[in-house]
Backbone:
């Protein structure tokens, strides 16, 4: 697939809202910051390219 056909999609992890059609990863990141999103995923097709979730690794492990 030529790189010109790639589209990046931004998903707000708090609301589930999807923003799509970005020509570049940087464009999707810029939109996330401009929209004030705190947590997001960026996909290219069905592949998650990036997750921004500050403190996501800080969660306690469940008790077994």
Residues:
């Amino acid at each position: 697939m030529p790189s010109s056909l790639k589209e990046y999609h931004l998903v707000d992890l708090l609301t589930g809202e999807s923003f799509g059609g970005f020509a570049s990863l940087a464009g999707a990141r810029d939109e996330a910051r401009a929209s004030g999103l705190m947590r997001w995923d960026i996909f290219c097709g069905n592949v998650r390219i990036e997750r921004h979730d500050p403190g996501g690794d800080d969660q306690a492990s469940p008790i077994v």
Remarks:
- Confidence is low (pLDDT under 50) at residues 58-64.
- The chain has one domain: 7-53.
